[in-house]
Design a protein that fits this description.
The chain has about 300 residues and is mainly α. It contains 17 helices and no strands. Interacts with CtaA.
């Protein structure tokens, strides 16, 4: 890690700067998938307990974001996509980001344990540890498999939500985890293709840097092929049903088509059209995940009326 103290002389920080430390866009995905995991669990959860659980899971996600920005401030400063983040931009001191992240980590884990159960709290603590230590501090700067292995951090929230409701891990929770875990590599590699030299300039061994764009395109196709049966297969479990099956087949069909197009792209053509296909697939991948979890939620909501599930 570079000398992070270069970012210790901030301008005056506003409330919005501290909100940005929590990575609100990432948090929205965490909150949604965790909420789905909690709501589709086969038990009744007191609304106050459910609300408190989601709040503390969100705080845990925010803590991870703040700690990640503290640690990655040096590489964020040289990447166009991240240069305006609060720490490299000089609006929040690195020490403040660290302090906020540590405080929110402790509060979120302890309060989730008190609000729901300690297994859920333990999973949340492990998620924060995995994202900050295993991914940010270790894998991200060490191996092109950073996104593959590190994707587990973003895959835990629906499992945490499920465990907050049930107190145990089940096949359905593992499948929701697997869906996000397998989705993460093609999602981020599509982004890496049109981020051009950002990762190279920052010294991050993203696949586009270590193996080249052609290899990255092939990897996107392979991982999308591996993702499809995991996603569609969930339709035949307790969280699935005909609505989910129809949605998943359509979504995976489009994703596979997009990944196929990326694989067969010539780099000169991609450069000429400003990576339009890559950007399109990346944007779709965001909808892909939200719509899958939306379909899982729809199945659970309609099941009492005999319209969801098998």
């Amino acid at each position: 890690m570079s000398d992070i103290h270069a970012f210790e002389q901030p301008k005056e920080a506003g409330f919005g700067d501290f909100v940005q430390l929590l990575k609100p866009r990432v948090m929205s995905l965490v909150v949604f998938t965790a909420l789905v995991g909690l709501l589709v669990a086969p038990v009744s959860v007191n609304p106050v307990v459910a609300l408190a659980s989601i709040l503390f899971i969100a705080l845990g996600a925010g803590a991870s974001g703040a700690l990640n920005m503290w640690w990655d401030a040096d590489i964020d400063a040289v990447m166009k996509r991240t240069a305006k983040r609060p720490v490299p931009a000089g609006t929040v001191a690195a020490g403040e980001a660290l302090g906020l992240g540590m405080a929110l980590s402790g509060i979120s884990v302890v309060m989730l344990g008190l609000a729901s159960n300690w297994l859920a709290a333990g999973l949340l603590a492990f998620t924060i540890f995995f994202y900050v230590v295993v991914y940010s501090m270790w894998l991200k700067r060490l191996t092109p498999q950073n996104i593959v292995i590190g994707g587990a951090a973003g895959a835990f929230p629906p499992m945490v939500g499920w465990v907050a409701a049930t107190g145990s891990v089940s096949l359905e929770a593992v499948l929701m985890f697997a869906l996000i875990f397998m989705w993460t590599p093609p999602h981020f590699w599509a982004l890496a293709l049109f981020m051009k030299e950002d990762y190279s300039n920052a010294g991050v061994p993203m696949l586009t840097v270590t193996h080249g764009r052609k290899s990255t395109r092939k990897h996107i196709w392979v991982y999308t092929v591996l993702l499809a049966p995991v996603a569609v297969g969930a339709a035949f479990t307790g969280i699935g049903g005909p609505i989910y099956l129809a949605a998943s087949v359509l979504l995976n069909g489009w994703f596979l088509w997009g990944a196929w197009r990326i694989w067969h792209r010539d780099e000169a053509v991609a450069e000429a059209d400003k990576y339009a296909v890559e950007k399109s697939v990346f944007r779709f991948s965001l909808y892909y995940l939200f719509l899958h979890f939306g379909a899982i939620l729809a199945e659970a909501a309609l099941r009492p009326y005999g319209l969801g599930g098998w």
